[in-house]
Amino acid sequence: MSQTELVEFLGTYGEPAFRARQIARQLYVNQVDDVMQMSDLPLALRQRLTDDCRIGSLTQVRVVNTDDNLTHKALFMLPTGEQIESVLMIYKDRATVCVSTQAGCAMGCTFCATGRLGLLRNLESHHIVEQVLWARRTLRHLSKTTTPTTPTKHTDDAWWGDDGGHPDALPQHLGNVVFMGMGEPFANYDRWWQAVERLHDPQGINIGARGLTVSTVGLVPGIKRLADAPLPINLAISLHAPNDALRSAMMPVNKRWNVAELIDTTREYVHKTGRRVSFEYVLLQGENDTPELAGELADLVHGMLCHVNLIPWNPVPGMPLGRSERQRVVAFQRVLQTAGVPCTVRVERGVSIAAACGQLAGAAISGP
Ligand code: SF4
Questions:
Q1: Which of 9, 38, 113, 134 allows an S-S link to 361, with CB 3.0 to 4.6 Å?
Q2: CATH fold group of domain 3-52
Q3: Residue 263's closest CA among 252, 281, 279?
Q4: How far apart are alpha carbons 329 and 338 in whole angstroms?
């Protein structure tokens, strides 16, 4: 519940508004997970709340970790039985959680494990917030109980590039939330936005707007809404192909809003907000990774305040696709750089536990 909802709820008990503020502080700042631990509340109220309420509604099914204990993937079950996943990633200078906004996804991108599930349901805002609370609790626990290990040297040439670094000391604070897990956030806009406001609330979880990043497959109405939204959160757009023929084959959404409409809307967004956008471009061997396509991409985004993230595809069992080889990625990146388009290659965390981009599918597909 937001503070306003807590005030209303406590009002039904005849309790004053300051009790709601106390409870919000216990839930979102102190992060207690048992009402009886809220020692600033009268015992009778705590007992009544214990009888009537429960903190959280997700059941944690399991958590697995990899990358020297710096990447943690949680599988949760909703009260209605569907499963979702969240991934906590600890880097040299920050900690980030990637959260789901839907169970499954209706968008059907051909390279994505979640897309195979179809849409199972929209998440409520509290399901989204709760994933962030899990990440904060996990980070807090890790920072108290573990010391960073020496980074594993990856000898496999397939895993190279910038993975965000290895910390000397674990960060205490979860500063970043990316809405890039299962689902398309703009297809569940209102509930997702409620979660954004709840996460940003300075009296509560207090994550800065610049620490919040939403990723969309290119739902043009959502981009327009975000341009008028009151919080300056970051926008990432999954582009993955620079022309309609290729993009429609990879991403059915392109038949509804094509590349030209998406890019025009993005340019308007940048003009209106003054904020830089990121384009995500997953690289599939022999599909969308030629220097010619890199040139098309450079022309498409020319002059825009943007950054391109190149993401060598993360394997999904049973998908007949290949991850671009290193020299193809380098050649692609070089074309963009020569054209003056800022770009980086993102090597993903969590690949071995199916926690990286495009690999999340609950227990249905994604393995450990
Ligand atoms: S890539 Fe994103 S939008 Fe596309 S199917 Fe997967 S979860 Fe949905």
A1: 113
A2: DNA polymerase; domain 1 (1.10.150)
A3: 279
A4: 14
Domain with CATH 1.10.150.530 in the chain: 3-52
Q: Name the residue with higher pLDDT: 167 or 59.
A: 59
Q: Residues near ligand 1 with C-beta < 6 Å?
A: 105, 107-109, 112, 114-115, 182-184, 217, 358
Start-end ranges of CATH 3.20.20.70 in the chain? 59-365
Ligand 1, atom nearest to 105 Cα: 8
Reply yes or no on whether the pLDDT at 354 is more than 80. no
Please list the active-site residues. Answer: 85, 357
What is the spatial distance between Cα 229 and Cα 72, in angstroms, rounded to a whole number?
A: 31
The yes-or-no verdict on residue 171 having pLDDT over 80 is no
Would the pLDDT of 241 be above 90?
yes
Please name which of 296, 274, 363, 292 lies closest in space to residue 331, comparing C-alpha atoms: 292
The per-residue pLDDT of the chain, averaged, comes to 90
* pLDDT band, residue 240 (cuts 50/70/90): very high
Rounded CA separation 68/144 (Å): 16
Is the pLDDT at 93 greater than 90, yes or no?
A: no
Report CA Rg, the chain: 21
Q: How far is the CA of 238 from the centre of ligand 1 (A)?
A: 9
- Atom index in ligand 1 nearest the CA of residue 251 equals 4
Task: Let me know: does 282 contact 240? Beta carbons within 8 Å.
Answer: yes
The CATH superfamily assigned to 59-365 is Aldolase class I (3.20.20.70)
Q: What is the pLDDT of residue 365?
A: 41
Backbone angles phi, psi at 82, to 5 degrees: -75, 160
